[in-house]
Design a protein that fits this description.
alpha/beta; Rossmann fold; 2 domains; 7-stranded mixed sheet; 5-stranded mixed sheet; 12 helices; 37% helix; 21% strand
C-alpha cells in the first residue's frame, strides 16, 4: 500500500507536537514550501524563522536557539545543508554539543533532472566523519513519525534525511522504533539485504520477486546509520550465502562501507555487494531513472541476489 511522502508526515507530526510545546522552533532556508511547512507557518507563525538562502546562518541560529533551551529543527535541502554549512555543523552543533535536529530534505537524487549540483549523495559520508552527531534515514511513514517524536526531546545533535517520494507501508505494526536499533522487516535464510531510506522500498519489492523463485531474504531497514546497530547485522548473517547493501548515496563512506568495515574486522567472509552511486558525475534523470540505471531497480536487485547465491 502506497502512503504519503515522508516529508508530509514529518511536517504534520512536527506541527502536532509544536502545538503542545511552544519551545519547538523551526528554522528554514527558503525551504518552507519544499519542506511541507507552509501550514506550520500559518498556524504557528511565532514558532518558525525564515533565514532565506543562507544555510550557514541557519545552523548558527539553530545553535543559538538551542543554547537558550529551545527545541530546534533546522530544515534545508540536504545537498546545501551538509556542504555549505559543514563547518557550522561541525563546530556550532556537534563540537558545542547543542541538541539541534537538522533535517536534510530532498536528499539523494530526489531533485532528479536538476543534476549533480543538487544531488545529495555525500551527506551521510561527511556527517559520519564528525563526532557527536547521530544520523537517521527513515524508510517509511511509520519510521518518520517515530523519529520526529523521538527527536523533540533527544539530547544529542541529530541529522534526519528525507526524500520526496510517496512511500510504501513497510511495517506490520509489530516493530518498535528506537534511534540506534535497526528493524528487520523480513526474515529469510538465503540472503541478507541491508538498506536505508527510500531504497528499502525497492529492496522490499526485490525480496517479493525472489520469494517467487524460492529464495528467502532477510531485509533490514537500517534507519540509523550512526550509532550503527552491529548486532542486528551480525545476528542475521550466520546461515546466509551473501549480503547486499542498498543506499541512495555514494558507495564512498555510506551504509555499505560501514557494513564492510564491520564484517572485515570480525573476519567474516561472505559474498558481499554494495549498491549505490559510483564515484562519478552521474547521469541525469528522474529519481527512478537514476536509481534504475545504477542497478537499484527491483528487478536488478533480485537478479544480483540470484547470481550471488548460485
Amino acid at each position: 500500500m502506497i502512503e504519503r511522502a515522508n516529508l508530509e508526515v514529518f511536517a504534520e507530526t512536527l506541527l502536532e507536537l509544536a502545538k503542545k510545546d511552544k519551545n519547538i522552533i523551526v528554522v528554514t532556508s527558503d525551504s518552507r514550501g519544499s519542506g511541507k511547512l507552509t501550514r506550520f507557518g500559518m498556524e504557528l507563525p511565532q514558532q518558525i524563522i525564515e533565514v532565506g538562502i543562507a544555510e550557514q546562518n541557519l545552523v548558527g541560529i539553530c545553535a543559538g536557539l538551542s543554547a537558550v533551551g529551545k527545541k530546534v529543527f533546522g530544515v534545508s535541502p540536504s545537498s546545501f545543508l551538509t556542504a555549505r554549512s559543514l563547518e557550522q555543523i561541525k563546530n556550532d552543533i556537534a563540537y558545542s554539543d547543542h541538541p539541534v535536529t537538522l533535517v536534510g530534505i530532498s536528499a539523494g537524487v530526489s531533485y532528479g533532472q536538476l543534476g549533480s549540483t543538487h544531488h545529495s549523495i555525500h551527506d551521510i559520508a561527511v556527517l559520519r566523519a564528525i563526532n557527536n552527531i547521530d544520523i537517521v534515514v527513515p524508510a517509511d511513514n511509520y519510521e518518520t513519525k517515530e523519529v520526529i517524536k523521538s527527536a523533540v526531546n533527544y539530547q544529542r545533535p541529530l541529522f534526519i534525511r528525507f526524500g520526496k517520494k510517496p512511500m510504501m507501508k513497510l511495517h506490520d505494526g509489530n516493530h518498535n522504533f528506537k534511534i540506534g536499533n535497526g528493524i528487520k522487516i523480513k526474515n529469510g535464510n538465503d540472503l541478507v539485504i541491508v538498506s536505508t531510506g527510500e531504497t528499502v522500498q525497492r529492496a522490499f519489492k526485490a525480496c517479493e520477486l525472489l520469494e517467487k523463485i524460492n529464495i528467502s531474504c532477510s531485509l533490514i531497514s537500517m534507519h540509523t546509520i550512526k550509532p550503527f546497530d552491529e548486532n542486528i547485522l551480525l545476528n542475521s548473517i550466520s546461515k546466509v550465502k551473501g549480503i547486499i547493501t542498498i543506499e541512495e548515496h555514494s558507495v564512498s563512506g555510506g551504509l555499505g562501507e560501514k557494513c564492510a568495515s564491520i564484517l572485515s574486522q570480525k573476519n567474516i567472509n561472505l559474498p558481499f555487494k554494495i549498491l549505490g552511486f559510483p564515484d562519478e558525475y552521474m547521469m541525469n534523470g528522474s529519481q527512478k531513472d537514476v536509481l534504475d540505471y545504477y542497478n537499484m531497480s527491483d528487478e536488478k536487485i533480485a537478479k544480483i541476489a540470484q547470481n550471488m547465491i548460485k
